[in-house]
Structures are given as C-alpha cells and as structure tokens.
Amino acid sequence: MSKPCTLIAFVMALFALSLSAIVLAADGEYRVAFAPVAQLERRLDELGREGYGCVALARPEPGSNVPGVAVILARTTSGSLPAHRVIIGGREDMKGPLTKNGADGFRVCGLVLDEEPPNPRDVAVMVRTSDAAWQYDVEVLLRYKDSMARLNAIGKDGFAPVAAAPIDNNRIPEQRNWMVIAERSTSGGPAREVAVRSDPGPTGLARNLNDSGKQGFHLDLTWKEGADYVAMLSRQAGTSAPHAYVVDGDPSNGAHSLPRLALGDFPYLSRRLFVMDDGVKASNEMVEEALPTIDRNGVVQSGSRVALDQVGDHLTRNRGYQVAYARVSRDKGGKSVLSVLMAKRD
Fold first, then answer.
1. Cα–Cα distances in angstroms (integers) from residue 94 to residues 87, 198, 220, in the given order
2. Computed from CA positions of residues 128, 132, 133, 139, in that sequence, does the dihedral angle turn out positive or negative?
C-alpha cells in the first residue's frame, strides 16, 4: 500500500464520536460483551434490555486473530431501552444494511475486522437510543488520491468519517486496505475539510498534528498501520481556530501520569504511545483485563458472563470517566486481553 506524506486513512473516534450517540447515566456503569459474531447481537440485545448501549468496539491488534468481537457498553439515561444491530459485510455489501438500519434510527458505534474462523469479515455494530435517523456511505481506500477526492466530496455534503477497519485483501495485516464508513444526520450536516497525517515516531507525529492544528484542524481519529501512527483531522469549512496536541512515547507512570485528554493508545517499541488534546486538562486511567476464552468452535467458556461483568465493574470503578480508546490483543500465553483507555475532563 502506498503511503504518501499525508496518508489517507480513517478510524473510529471512540471518545469524540461514539459517546455522542449515548447519554451516559450519572454513575457511569459499564458492561463488556465478548462473543463470536453469530452470538453477538443476541448478547447485545440482552444488555440492551438492561439499559446498556454500545459506546465502543475494541480494535483487534493486527494479526492477533482474536476469536470474537469485544464491545463496551454503558448504561444510558434514554427514555427507551437501547437496541442493537450487527452488520456483517465487505466492500460491496456494507452500505445497504447500514443505510436501511440508519433510516430506522440505528447509528454506527464501531467497525472491526473479525478474524475468527472460517473467514475474516468486517463487522459493524449499530445502536438505537433515540428517534434520530442517519445516512451512510462507504469508501474502500484502494487508490488513495481517488478515495480522498470522494471523501472530501461527500464531506461537502455533511458526511463525516466515523468508523473504519481493514478489509481481508492481504495475508500480511499491515498491508491490508481499509474500508471507511461516513455518516450524516438525515437533516444534514456542516461541510468539512479533511487532512490526514502520519509518522513512525512521537516527535514527528506531534509536529505533523500541530502543523495541521495551526490551520484549525481538529483531531478526530487515530490508528496504527505497520510502523506508522496515523491521524485524521477535520475542520468545518471556513473555520480556522488553532488547536494543539501532545504525543508522549514514554510516559513515566502510564496513562495515570497523562495531564491532558487522551485520545489514543498504541504499542511503541517496548513502551506505549499516547496521543492527547493539549487544550483539555484531564485525568486518564488504563483498565486491562483478560477476556474469557472462546474455543475454535466458537463456544465461550462457562462462567463468561460473570467474568465479563467483573471487567465491566472494573471500568465502572473509574467514576466520571468515559471510554477514550479500546483495543484487544493476545498475550504471550495466547489469552485475549482488553485494554481500555479512560478519560475524565478536569
């Protein structure tokens, strides 16, 4: 895959965007669903009847072959109970179901590439918590110049990129192309311009982010491809208020020591790299928990509901914190581990 200086790629803005679809209860109660795709919607429906709605999908680390999809949910204050839809598709068959369910009030919460057997496939989770309706478009980034032109064209019509995941078109995870979901309200949205920057290190990434920030671009989405850290920024047409960012590749005490609003968490050498909004003072915490085992037949180990509820309880302990970024990986023993970066504005 070609990587120009300004790389065109987009991912879900977990903190800025997904939580706008959910009005959290005051006590910030969380739950986690982790299941094979065939069982996922049923599990989400169960949690929806308890008042929990999707706020984030945990992005699998490239090549980790996590045998299911991990979804983070929060209890809502909505007058009606949240409902969910799980959409399975690829480059040709994702737009139709998203558009149909969007018209019925379902909004995209996240998108991941699920690599459980027998074949990898892209999975989107949608949630309905209100009567609002949404429109969707899908772009596969095969030729970046052409894709950028199309994404900016629909941006002028009010569409904003809200989720993305790799498609299964290369055995080498770092060389897969990405599929982007763009969203707008049926009532329309403001026109926007898009800029995407990347760099393999924290110093260069911070410089590139702040170069764009001086022009009024705000960071929407972050992700990692191979050795490169990638960020998508946007600004509403005609606006130019400056914005600043910090990238820390060696925090002294992990997420707990970060003084600004954390937006992303990535592996960096033997450490971690955090991206922060320098304009927002915040407290940040990291919750890391092992997920239940799912065997090769898609069967979740007994007692998984209790284990997952305990993970949700550990997230809930951080009162007033919201999910900023989530990912799932495999540890050295082969167990799936959920990492959730949480933030609270000071």
1. 7, 27, 22
2. negative
Residue 112 and residue 96 in contact, taking contact as beta carbons nearer than 8 Å: no
**β-bridge partners, 287:** 340
147 vs 3, which has greater pLDDT?
Answer: 147
Which residues have C-beta within 8 Å of that of residue 115, sequence separation ≥ 6? 60, 64, 65, 66, 67, 168
Q: What is the DSSP string of 263-293?
A: EEEEEETTEEEEEEEEEEEEEEEEEEEEPPP
Contacts 24+ apart (CB under 8 A), 300-309: 300/34, 300/35, 300/36, 300/39, 300/68, 304/34, 308/31, 308/32, 308/33, 308/34, 309/31
Percent of the chain with pLDDT over 90: 54
pTM, rounded to two decimals: 0.88
- Of 194-198, 278-282, 327-331, the one with minimum mean pLDDT is 194-198
Is residue 67 a contact partner of residue 120, using CB atoms and an 8 Å limit? no
Sign of the CA dihedral 268, 212, 339, 326? negative
> Mean pLDDT across the chain, nearest whole number?
86
- How far apart CA 135 and CA 314 sit, in angstroms, is 35
**b (16+ CB within 10 A) / e for 227-253:** ebbbbbbbbeeeeeeebebbbbbebee
For 314, residues 6+ apart whose C-beta sits below 8 A from its C-beta are 287, 289
Separation CA 36–CA 54 (nearest Å) = 16
Amino acid at 342: M
Mean pLDDT calculated for residue range 34-52: 94
Spatial separation of the C-alpha atoms in residues 276 and 173, rounded to whole Å: 26
pLDDT of the residue at 145:
85
Q: What Rg do the C-alpha atoms of the chain give, in angstroms? A: 19
Amino acid at 328: V
Q: Which residue has the higher pLDDT, 13 or 58?
A: 58
d(CA 31, CA 83): 15
Residue 34 has a CB neighbour count (10 Å cut-off) of 26
**26's tokens:** 């005051």
